[in-house]
Amino acid sequence: MLSLVGGYLRSGVHELQVAATLTAGAFRALFVWPPNRRDILEQMDILGAGSLGIVALTGLFAGMAMGLQFTVELSVFGAKGYLGKMVTVSIIREMGPVLTALMVAGRVCSGIASELGSMKIGRQVDAVRVMGLDPVAKLVMPRMLAVVVMLPVLTLLSDALAIVGGYGVGRLVGQIDPTTYWSAVDQGLTVENLVGGIVKPFVFAVIIGAVGCTSGLLSSGGTRGVGRATTQAVVKASICILITNFVVGYAVMKALGWA
What we know:
Strand content: under 5%
Number of domains: 1
Structural class: mainly alpha
Largest sheet: none
Order of helices and strands: HHHHHHHHH
Number of helices: 9
Radius of gyration: 21 Å
Oligomer: single chain
Shape: elongated
């Protein structure tokens, strides 16, 4: 039992070291190696634009669900006028960044892990080295940069659709006055609330890129190993996002003097 736990710990520490090395190498490659714009734009299209549909649906229905629950509860206290602010604050601070990151992790992290894992099994990574290129600059950096650029944009889209969805349900179920709702939304769009909503997507993007690339480049055991690495990449990224969400949220609240 102890040997099994020790094995898991050693494996976890090794993966953490590799992830940190790849992350540092990817950002260093931005200044050492001239970025290939075609590779970066291609990854932004695959990883970012390809996730628009699922992110839009997630944000819209998350906002609708929150609008429904808040409308019912606030009606009990005669405080339906606060619906817009409650939906806005909840979405911007927590639900928007987390749900968007989880959806993107499920699609993007698995795609990165399977693609890089297949390249490693097929010795294409070794071929990159033979050509005199840095695999981190050629394979890792464009993918990580694409996620870092696109995830905040997708989060903003998700937040906007969630607020609109909350308004639609509030208007339909609770007969919320449009002026009251959007005035409350404006009250929730404070600098303090926006800080956490802006910081979190960048942190989550680094996690998604690092976990996906690490899982792919460490995969072994043929096609079965690639499938296993793909599944584990999604699970690891999701867990890291949830843990990091609390840590970053607490740090932001501490910095703002709220905790």
